[in-house]
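Notes from the 1:1 (GR / supervisor)

We went over the backlog. Supervisor wanted to see one worked example end to end before approving the batch request, so GR pasted a single chain during the call. The sequence is below; no edits were made to it. Supervisor asked that the structure be written out right there so they could see what the output format looks like.
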Amino acid sequence: MSPHQPLSTAQIEALEGNGCRAEKWSLVVVADGFDPAHVRRVRFVGQVRIGALSGHVEVEGGVRLPAGLADATIVDCELGDDVLVDRVGGHLANFRVDAGAIITDVGTVVTRPGATFGHGVCAETVNEGGGREVTLFAELSSQFAYLQAMQRHDAELVSRLETMVADVTATVTADRGLIGAGTRVAHVSEVIDVNIGPAARIVGAARLCNGTILSESGARTEVGQGVIAEDFIFAEGASVEDGVVIHTGFVGQGAQLGKQFSAENSLFFANSEAFHGEACAVFAGPYTVTHHKSTLLIAGIYSFYNAGSGTNQSNHMYKLGPVHQGIIQRGTKNGSFSYMRWPSVVGPFCVIIGKHLNNFDLSYLPFSYLTEEGGESLCTPSMNLFTVGLARDGDKWPTRDRRTATTRRDQIHFEIYNPYTVGKMIRGETALNALYEETPRDVD
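Structure output shown during the call:
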């Protein structure tokens, strides 16, 4: 931003002639290139710094509009060169608005003192009863979150991780928020304590409170119509649109949430997709996919997962409350209207079909089919090894990586066969051989 200087007498007279007012004109400073003709019906409160207003901004349809300020109350803000601030129904307060940003047709856009922008909030993932919390911060990766949630028995590790997050939270805590260069915020009712990175598109959202929207020119983040988000962090290239409601959550790079999906205390890492259904206390590792209205994911950890229509789980025996959890290891699929009762463990690349009313542990039987026959669960080990779907999965995931950010935080290993899965195959073979030797021959 260019150097600033106080308004001249002629500039003040021109501003007042355009219907502008200020508590103290001496607190309003402007850069070279400031043109008072571009400022109309604006009330300035507190210290306001304004950049040059001589260029244009581009909105939808390739339409170019002159930069300027109109019909707004602006309180203690720093406005960059060639911004457009127009039709602010409430007030724009305590923000740095970088060059080329657009804020139009909004309600209240404000940062309160000591805002943390979604950092330091604990999401109660995996288990609704608590004990597997993940603390939100902008640089969160699936690996960091996994250590926080699933290694709680290592008190020293967890303590050090929490210290790292606390240090980051301390550095971002501020009395002034950021709306990055080239960002557009339009038709939004309320934005409170939200940092927004460059080139983001926030259009039509209902309410955003206490969050961070990371974005960059090569990985634009989009927040669309009707979205309500509180205590959140959206990573670069994420898309959250079409009436999504999210409370205490993280949406990773290239992840997409939409079509009235709702989520609470849930994390969605790189390239996940969540539409129509709902999630509660979910740790959705990379490539977790749920696309159906009647699907509920609750109290579990997933990755490379595909939830069929009507998939749901139970996480409590009613007198005890929601104290149970599920572990769905990578690559599993659920058939339509499948049901699982927690606690259960599903091994890698399994297929679950039917309703399973008993708890089960397939952690050392990867590539299994679990089906329901006469109300009982039947496991067919290694059946999924022979399906074309498995080969297709191994090929499709790398090609569907939507991450274009400068830094890709989730470390993703795409290969189906690796020490993790093959180690389980060896253990499974040992267990099955032992079962064969020990089982009487007259048993089915």
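Supervisor's comment: The chain is about 15% helix and 35% strand.
Batch request approved.
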